Amino acid sequence: xxxxxxxxxxxxxxxxxxxxxxxxxxxxxxxxxxxxxxxxxxxxxxxxxxxxxxxxxxxxxxxxxxxxxxxxxxxxxxxxxxxxxxxxxxxxxxxxxxxxxxxxxxxxxxxxxxxxxxxxxxxxxxxxxxxxxxxxxxxxxxxxxxxxxxxxxxxxxxxxxxxxxxxxxxxxxxxxxxxxxxxxxxxxxxxxxxxxxxxxxxxxxxxxxxxxxxxxxxxxxxxxxxxxxxxxxxxxxxxxxxxxxxxxxxxxxxxxxxxxxxxxxxxxxxxxxxxxxxxxxxxxxxxxxxxxxxxxxxxxxxxxxxxxxxxxxxxxxxxxxxxxxxxxxxxxxxxxxxxxxxxxxxxxxxxxxxxxxxxxxxxxxxxxxxxxxxxxxxxxx
Amino acid sequence: xxxxxxxxxxxxxxxxxxxxxxxxxxxxxxxxxxxxxxxxxxxxxxxxxxxxxxxxxxxxxxxxxxxxxxxxxxxxxxxxxxxxxxxxxxxxx
Amino acid sequence: xxxxxxxxxxxxxxxxxxxxxxxxxxxxxxxxxxxxxxxxxxxxxxxxxxxxxxxxxxxxxxxxxxxxxxxxxxxxxxxxxxxxxxxxxxxxxxxxxxxxxxxxxxxxxxxxxxxxxxxxxxxxxxxxxxxxxxxxxxxxxxxxxxxxxxxxxxxxxxxxxxxxxxxxxxxxxxxxxxxxxxxx
Lengths: 381, 93, 184
Fold this sequence. Notes:
By secondary structure, chain A is an alpha/beta fold. Chain A is built from 13 helices and 15 strands.
């Protein structure tokens, strides 16, 4: 292990190298661009023995991932915003074919107006497509989550693709100290990928056939079971990771901060949680009983864990960095549905769209709202 | 309504290659093509155009025959044969 | 120590972002926790850009932009007329300005601890080119006492050697050292 100050995108690229990804079809798009830059550098220097494919679009990148993963290769790609949107057609095919892979999503707003900055509209819009989704708060968590994601994705009870989402600019372009594990440590934690089925001319089989109405629903049910089974695998992987590397992120699904005696909490994903921690430290010094529930895993949704985390709170505020236009914040929808039977007031706040900064002051306002018994959230500008 | 759960492979993978061979489509025929061997010039246009690959060529003699297990009776072979060496007859069922 | 925040003002192409990265690495080599990040806009050569650094003893969780910096570094003095470089600066905040003017002439900056240094001249003397972004950090080391010159040298080596630019690293180290000596 070595500790050094590196860019978060580099931390992701290093994790991909340490995981010995074999095929990386990538199409650069801001703010994910530094990832393919670094990986192509590793491949060119001979530090990573992988096929780096220069594709002509994100749609091709996602398609090439399917082809490579079907042959049993460990695959990786990265994208952002409209790039992920162009991949959309391929997302449910990857998960439906039960092909393990890891994709880094450098979260960026979907146009229009054209915007290169951070919010969660890209990956949250893709939440229903059968991909496991982990959201990282720091450079360290981005690196660690890539390693964990391969282990979760390739688990024989899971066999589902995984997205590691980390905030564009708020994380992708940040330099900060990161513990980089050694190759030996990662090799011990993550053995080579052993697929259940793989394309092999010596042992022919068919992948991607038609599913008639009499069978299609059974496949979807099987996928849903695998998704739900992955909850335990994510927890177990996070615990094993702690044993191997000394770091973990809550129970792997939710990361709780100052919740034990808290009366009020904010709930959110990604880098906004770091700023929330600072606000909570400040308010705690004033004697306020406030805490944070960081949703690290959006899919599968940790419903039971959330019910447990929230049970002693008086009120909570969900901060969404995305709006399901015509409805509300999607994280808020999930959480309200999970705590439907709990006696708790939950408010919805929309914040940080298109790179609008989320500050300590915002959290102070949100906690003041909760304390004052306000029943409705708002858009935080 | 309660249908028994099907046995399905993860990811809809079909692990038995060539399983479509077990699916015989010959029973669909209303008309049956028939090759008149004395007229046939072995141009093999029927072999080329058959959408079901149901025309066989004998490796030794070069003679063509029809695999009635898979021939659906579309009669494309009849219409394209330049020497009218394939004729149709009504399938007896 | 409490959290220290630094805002670097430069013009597109001057290397303000690289400057913040080097400072974060140098602070780390001085045994501190650090964080550097750019405020990305529509970057183009010559346009005003900002980059930020945070330094603390404790791990840094804060992810918001820097609004109330303790230090401001201005790589190009013409920016003083283009942007409000002291916006949010703490009352006892320090401003390091690359300028050929004397501090008294920088009226817009009155009320703050202003250090005017002709970094461009030093860079031209030492490097032979007007590369001021890394050199300016010599002044920060001297004035803050938070980051040692040795740590700065190490950081310059780390960033430039990784890009295969050993000669560039040497010149920048010399320039940073010269700015350190010239800072009062």
